[in-house]
Amino acid sequence: MDDYPLLNLFWTMFWFFIWIMWLFLLFKVITDIFRDHDLNGWAKAGWLILCILLPYLGVLIYVIARGKSMTQRDVKQAKESEAAFQSYIRKTAGTGSGGHADELARLAELKEKGAITNEEFEKAKAKVLS
After folding, report:
1. More confident residue, 34 or 94
2. CA distance 43 to 32
3. Residue 46 has pLDDT above 60, yes or no
4. Contact indicator for 58, 65 with CB cutoff of 8 Å
5. When comparing pLDDT for 102 and 60, which is higher?
6. Which residues, 6 or more positions from 90, have their beta carbon under 8 angstroms from its beta carbon?
């Protein structure tokens, strides 16, 4: 233990931590490259080659150039996953269709969007409640 001072141990741990964090970022970037439907095949190949040949610089350039859109794609995927999960729960629980409350909520949403008038809303509401 005398051959390896404590400060060197801390530096080794620091660089190991940085390397692990870079690996996480690299996997995130590669996942994002394949998830992006706006990029064509050549652009995806170019980003992959850049990230493989110049790993640290390539990942840094990707995050600087496309970091904001990475966040947007993450949020979009999270919303889609949540919607699919909620749909699955409704379907499994049997409350997805046919319920009066769901029908009234759908009618209210159509009225708010302007898809139906107040008269149409009242007629449909009366029909649902009867």
Report:
1. 34
2. 13
3. yes
4. no
5. 60
6. 96
